[in-house]
Amino acid sequence: MTKDKKLIPSLPKGFKDRFGSELELKKKIISKIERIFLNYGYEPLETPAFEFSENIGSFLADDPSNPMSDVFSFTDEKEKLTLRYDLSAPLSRFVAKNFMDLVFPFKRFACGDVFRQDKADVTRFRSFTQFDSDIIGDANEAQVDSEICNLIAESFLDCGLKKEQFTINVSNKKILQGLLSEIKIPKDKQYQVLKTIDKLERLGLEGVEQLLKEGRKDGSGAFIKGCQLSDDQVSQIKNTINLKNISEFKYNMKNKLSIEGINELEELYEVLSYGTNSGQVKPMLSITRGLSYYSSFLVETNLNFKVKNSKGKEVSVGSLASGGRYNSLISRFKGVDYKGSGMSIGIDRVLYVLNQIKQLKVKKEQKVLMCIQDTKYTKNCYEIVSKLRENGIISEIYLDQNKNLKKQLQYADRKNIDIAIIMGEDEFKENKLLIKKLNSDKENDQITVSKQNLINEVKKYI
Fold this sequence. Notes:
Radius of gyration: 28 Å
Shape: elongated
Structural class: alpha+beta
CATH topology of the largest domain: BirA Bifunctional Protein, domain 2
CATH architecture of the largest domain: 2-Layer Sandwich
Distance between the termini: 58 Å
Number of helices: 15
Largest sheet: 8 strands, mixed
CATH class of the largest domain: Alpha Beta
CATH superfamily of the largest domain: Bira Bifunctional Protein, Domain 2
């Protein structure tokens, strides 16, 4: 008989467990962002992690020959299912299904995990949490898109980032689409070119230039075929994405579609000027976004500083919040056609940053441990801890009544529990309890109180 093989307790690359203070910080980030969205009148929505593959679409694909190459899909009982890669595609299905019951413009927010077949690194996961806001329906596009920018700015400011620490970069997809048509790049190749340009921050200008031409080797040594553009076409693209402001866009670009996109960008800035966040928003033509359903307005939020990986090396975390306008995503479904615009905040990337710079503090919840010093008083100890919980005091009872008091206090110390309550024979006879403050510099930071006055005395400590 062979011995059972022991399993290795590991995770696939690109997935991560979270617990303790890191998870507490993540929850606080989500709570703060949710409060901002509620203040703007958004409604919460929850959709399942799985969708029919044909409904969710293949807007992420790098490989046209395998449109589902960048997502997790499988067939179950003849149904092709896909794990959602974002929260906007499921939203479009929800709106198409429930449009008769919704009030438009429909403003919703959603928070959940999304999944991508991607190459993972320290800030790039294959499963990660997104917090989305979207506005669906006929409305003034400049007003809608400016509200998306304002939501990003106020969310990050409320999470503890300072104005000088991040920039909300915006563009309009029509500007580069007009250029690509003008320099004779076929329509069936334009998406590949735009997606390549979108990798500028990660790969640098040289890496993008290689991919626009013949191709390049990635970190693993594999050769990635490029877009096969000519030197002149690449040169014109480089010159355009280096333009810095709307005045330069207007002076250098004459294509009708490009001018349309520039005018829409001007209208966006006009509405932004009515609020307090316009200084955070800068134009950047290299933003094209990897998802193919975006049609015009684009947004991408980046840090103005570097963070470090576990080895102390400075790394770029990429975009913390991104999105744009999608005016045909919902029209894929029979009988409905609504415009939409939205953005996603990458919660795990925000967490990675805030965990390092320590600008958002998580208030430590004060906790109590009910110790059992004598097994014959176990029932009484349970009655006491129930009373503490009824009064909103986070409390636990030690779960091995046979362990001595020293072991129980060691447990409390390792869990950073603040207060121990002890009841031995003397306390029981006198109807009293000993409150011991842990993690204290004082040697005898403890008091004896009556059972009737326990709640009041514990609240003084917490």
